[in-house]
Amino acid sequence: MAEYTGPLVDAPVAPTAPAAKPKINPALVNALTPPAAMPVQTVPSAAPTNVLPTANMSPKDQAAFRLAEANRKAAAQMEAEKIKPIPEKINASVLENHQAINKLDDALDLLESNKDAIGLKGNLGQFLLNKLDPKGIDTRAAIADIGSIVLHDRSGANVTVGESPRLLPFIPTPSDDYEAAKSKLARMRKYVAEEQDAIKATYSKEQGFKEFAPLPQRIGINKPPAGAPADAKQAPDKNWYSPDPKRPGKYLMWKAE
User: Fold this and answer.
1) Domain check: are 203 and 99 in the same one?
2) Global model pTM greater than 0.85
3) Domain ranges, residue 155
4) Which of 88, 97, 129, 155 registers the highest number of CB atoms within 10 A of its CB?
């Protein structure tokens, strides 16, 4: 057999087809893949409460901070010292004047609700007058009490109405008629209110004083409607009730006006 002595070459190789890629089922992949771990959130630790604001400052800045704080406290102290407290004597004067105004208002209301309580019959003795006109007892008592009222002027000095010559013309009497008594009470009230306003203006916030404490609210008087006896009392339903003299333990109702 003859021997081939020419160049050697590789025999042609037929190209191989690329391997087919496997088909991926997304649902299967999701079912087999474990869920990713949730990231761990770290909560920053609260800053220590006992750390001084100068902890991270340089010595120079610390000195400046302390100086600023000292100046701030000194300014606040000076501002607080500017507000003067109201003297106890003045507080007491304002309270007593307030009570006097309430008494005058009560007397005016009582007089308005029973205009016939005073007049010429006021010259009778008190025992006889109270027997003849028991409904007017409260009105006459309120008017008689005016002379004992203690007032205070803007300096805080006290004066009893009945002992002041200047105030004597303002004091009504049980023998005054309705118009005269009403006029005197109104003038007296005006005088007391003006003195009260003067005291409050002298010791006001604008003058460097603290504010006055709230004064107690006036309660007022018991004012039954027309025709009802003086001992009638008002109930929560706004009507008035008085004991029935013919039926012990029972009450008569009086419609509110």
Assistant:
1) yes
2) no
3) 88-207
4) 97
